[in-house]
Amino acid sequence: MNFIEYTLTSDMLCMGERIKKGQFRPTVTTIPYSQITGALKAVFGDKDIHAVGYFPFENEQEFRRRHVQILTYSPRDRAINTSIIPLYIEYLRDVKGRVFIAATDDIRDALKNESISIYMDMGAFKSKGFGGCTLKKCREIGEEDLEIREGLLNTRIPIAKAKEMNGMDGKSQKRLIDEGGTTEFLKNTFGIEKVVKARYGYLFEPTSKTSGWYVLSLFEGSVIKGPEFLLKDYDRGDGNDTQ
Q1: Cα three-residue angle 132-202-10, rounded to 5 degrees
Q2: What is the Cα 177 distance to its own chain's centre?
Q3: What is the spatial distance between Cα 205 and Cα 35, in angstroms, rounded to a whole number?
Q4: How many Å apart are CA 200 and CA 34, to the nearest integer?
Q5: What's the mean pLDDT when you consider all of the chain?
Q6: 3-state secondary structure of 163
Q7: DSSP 8-state class, residue 176
Q8: What per-residue confidence (pLDDT) applies to 167?
C-alpha cells in the first residue's frame, strides 16, 4: 500500500453544501475524499483514483479567522429578470493543504506524463472564479514508511463505495455503526485497521453524470487506528505553517 503526497495551494475554494432551501452555505475546513477524488477524476478521467486531504492547523477558530470569508450571492430568475433571495456563502481564501493519493496502477499510469505539478479545479462556483488548485508532489510513502497508530481522523472518507454500500444489509450497517470495526474499502484503500469511535456523516458519490448517492462516511474527529498521515497531529516538520 503506497501513497503519493502533494501540497495543495488555492486562492479561493468554495466547499461544503447548502442545506436545501437554506440561505447559508458553510465551508468545510478539511479536504474530503469526495471533493479531491472528484477533482482528480475530472483531470484524469474515470480511473481508479482515491485521495484525501486536509488543511494543517492547530486552532480551527484561528484558521477560520485568517482564511474564511463570506460572499453574498444573489442568483437571478431569468424568467422575470429579478434577483431572488441572496445566499451567504463561506469560502476559503489563500489556503495551503496536504493531499494523499493512493498509488494505484491507474494513477501511476495517469501521472507518468505529468510534471511535478497538477492543475485542477475543485469545489463549487468554478464558473465564478473559485476552485483553481495547484498540486505539487512532495514524496512517495511506501509501506515501510506507514506508521500505524490511534488518533483523530483529519479528513472525511466514505466507509465504502456506493456499490458496496448497496450490498450491505441494514444489520451489517447498524453493526458497523454500533460496534466500530472497519470495512474492506477503509482497510484496503487507506490502511484503516479499526474505527474506535466514529463521527458519521454523508458524502456524495456520483454514479453517472446526472445522479449519485450519499454514502455513509467517517468525518474528522473520528478516532481510528490507521496511517499516521491521516491523523490530526501529523506533522513531518517540513516547514509548512499551521495556518
Answers
A1: 15
A2: 21
A3: 10
A4: 15
A5: 85
A6: helix
A7: H
A8: 63
Report pLDDT for 239: 38
Q: Is 0.85 topped by the overall pTM?
A: yes
C-alpha cell at 196: 474506535
16-20, 77-81, 143-147, 161-165: lowest mean pLDDT where?
A: 77-81
Supply the DSSP string of 28-69, one letter for each residue: PSEE-HHHHHHHHHHHH-S-S--EEEE---S-HHHHHHHHEE
**Closest alpha carbon to 91 in 31, 38, 32, 29:** 29
Q: Which three cell numbers stand for residue 197?
A: 469511535
Would you give the DSSP letter of residue 126? Answer: G
Q: What are the angstrom distances between the C-alpha of 176 and each of 34, 118, 136, 164, 195?
A: 21, 37, 36, 14, 9
Q: What pLDDT band is residue 166 in, cutting at 50, 70 and 90? A: low
Residue type, 41: K
Amino acid of residue 149: R
- Average the pLDDT over 88-101 and give the result: 94
Cell numbers placing 95: 489556503
Q: How far is CA 6 from CA 88, 134, 140, in A?
A: 31, 9, 9
Q: Take residue 87 and report the three cell numbers written for it.
A: 445566499
233 by DSSP, 3-state: which? coil
Instruction: Return the percent helix, strand and coil in the chain, to nearest 5.
Output: 25, 40, 40
Measure Cα distances from 174 to 165, 168, 171, 237 in Å: 12, 10, 5, 40
Residue 23 in this model has a pLDDT that exceeds 50? yes
Site of grid cell 475530472:
42
Residue 65, burial from CB neighbour count under 10 angstroms (0-12, 13-18, 19+): exposed
